[in-house]
């Protein structure tokens, strides 16, 4: 029996078997001595690539620093992640152990700011070790609700692990709805999940726009989370140069503090 054209096309897409030069089917009888060939055509469809422009703040052969906008995951099972967008935004390393660029730490979905990326196997290992050994200094800014002490240190367990954050209030403005809004400079000394959000909430000063760690009646919707990873300072693991990377505050911060707190 000769297959129809439609059946032949369907078979060819999936691969096919020929017996003595004829396409076989479940009705083909094998007696022995036949020439049986399995043919699997190459898939002409290229892997789908995420086209998502990212702002590159720093890049060399070893590593890069990228601005993470709000509304995108750093990594995960979703297609739209920073990890999937990195190859289209970075220049491949020419070093022998170059690899697909990989973020070496994470920011929350709604948080903006700097994400550090390794471009080689050795740099990914080195940066991971530097974060673990607390050799990378991180500076954040947040907009916190309510009256606060000018500065302080927060030490509390998060998920059973000791956590430590230092903060300084840079400026405050009155707010009809929230009472007081504070521009707060933060230095997390540990890297627990949601650490800064939990720490400020524990003081009774949740971050503006935070829906998860919030006080009843003081949730700002539709403006996003006012938390920004502003700066990273560290010694380059290979060139040994001092690296200081900054990412300017989003415009929504400036709209509130443009005149009240010009020196950040």
UniProtKB/TrEMBL annotation:
Keyword field: RNA-binding
Residues of the Pseudouridine synthase RsuA/RluA-like domain: 62-200
InterPro entries attached to this UniProt entry: PsdUridine_synth_cat_dom_sf (IPR020103), PsdUridine_synth_RluA-like_CS (IPR006224), PsdUridine_synth_RsuA/RluA (IPR006145), RluA_PseudoU_synthase (IPR050188)
Pfam families in the cross-refs: PseudoU_synth_2
PROSITE patterns reported in the protein's UniProt record: PSI_RLU (PS01129), S4 (PS50889)
Highest rank taxon of the organism: Bacteria
GO BP annotations, alphabetical order: pseudouridine synthesis; RNA processing
Gene3D superfamilies: Pseudouridine synthase
Species of provenance: Flagellimonas chongwuensis
UniProt GO molecular function: catalytic activity, acting on RNA; pseudouridine synthase activity; RNA binding
Protein name: RluA family pseudouridine synthase
